[in-house]
Structures are given as structure tokens and as C-alpha cells.
Amino acid sequence: MVVRQRGITRQARGTAGRRREDRFGECGRAATLRHRRAVAGEEISGMKGSAHRQPLPPGGARRIAFDELPSYVGYQVRRAQAKIFAEFAAAVAGLDITPGSFGVLTLIRANPGITQVALAAAFAVDKSTLSPVIVRLERRRLIRREVLASDRRCHALFFEPSAEPAFLAARERVRAFERGVAARLSAAEQRELARLLAKLQAAGEPA
In which domain, by residue range, is 38 found? Predict the structure, then answer.
């Protein structure tokens, strides 16, 4: 009686297992097969020993070959920008501000009533590129937009006085960060870098 009950139990378990397999279909059977192969692979790998394993370079990642990229001026400028932007984010952590939004706030504050078209031209970007930044700053009530009486298709941008304390706190952090970045170069190197970057920006522009 006990034997038969165990047989029934085994049979029931087998039926339940098949039902689970049927329920998951081919995906379930494929997953089971992959699992069995993985287990078998681990066992075989353990039997082969470490002598057959290919060593990884330090850090466990493949070393990247940059070819001629480091000789490109644009590549070096972009890498420097990426590093500085990452350090900027750490320096102003908790203030919810980016290099771009800080620059936009600074210009709007210094130029009350500036239009979005003029602001985009100052940053040498398209108006559509600047629009999302303007919208976010307006939603945070850091700036406001007013329709120009002379041209209702354009908006004048104004810095909100209530945002002054937050802006000044952010500016102090940015200034401290900039001093740290500048300290990596001598005074002469800073002047030379500024001159060379200005020369790159002016290239191709009408005299």
C-alpha cells in the first residue's frame, strides 16, 4: 500500500512537472536545457583546472585601443568637457543644476528681457535646443517669460528675484569648482588655453 502510494506520488509529481513544462512551452524547455548545459559546463570547467583559463588584464576588462583618436583636437576637447562636467555635477550635488542651466541663468540674470533667440545665439545653439532648459527653469520658478509687445511671437526672459539666494549659493560652489580646475594649470597655461579655445571658436566666422 505504501509502495503504491509512493508510486502514485511519483507519478503525480511527474504529471505536475510535465504540466509545468507544457505551460511554459518551448521557452521553458529551452531554459531547462540551458540550465543543464550550464551545470555541465561548470563541472567540465572545474575538471579542466585554471591552466586552460585565459587570463584577463588588470581590472577584468579588455584594454581599449584608441588608434589615432588622441591626436584629434576635437576628441581631446570632448574628453576634457566630459571630465569637467562630471566633476561639476559632484561639486554642485544637491542643487539640481547643470553646467548648461547655470550658464542660462547667469545670462538671463545679467540681461533682463533677453529673448530666447538672442540667448540661443549667445550659446551658439539652436533655439529648439535651448527650449527644454527654459521650460525646466520656468517650471522651477527661477525665470519667467513675458510676451514682447513689439512682437508677440517672441518672449522676453527675466530672472525671478525670489531665485536670487539659490543662485548665489550655486554660484559660490561653481566658483570654488572653477578655481580647482584652473589650479591644474599655471597662470600662463590658463591664458594660453583660453586663447587657443577662443581661436578654435572663431575659426570660420566672418571677420
Answer: 2-46
